[in-house]
Amino acid sequence: MKVTIRRTGNDLSAYVPKKDLEEPIVEVENEGLWGGFVVLRNGWRLLLPDLPKDTQLPVTVEAKKMVNDAAQSETS
């Protein structure tokens, strides 16, 4: 699913246009953000692609929603 990651003040947020959903990112697996999962305030876990650490924000990426610790493609 397409997800836009942006900085809001000192925090990060994720916007999912298909769901018209914007949530703060409350946990990141990797300090550099990319190549690991993030957890949104609503509980969604998204696996982000492996991008360079200095990638400029905001950026739209193809992320996978993780369900039961397995990445799944969004089909709806």
TrEMBL record:
Keyword Protein biosynthesis: no
Short name of any one Pfam family annotated for the protein: NifT
Keyword Isomerase: no
Database matches in Gene3D superfamilies: NifT/FixU-like
Keywords linked to the UniProt accession: Plasmid
Protein name, per record: Nitrogen fixation protein NifT
Phylogenetic placement of the source organism: Bacteria, Pseudomonadati, Pseudomonadota, Alphaproteobacteria, Hyphomicrobiales
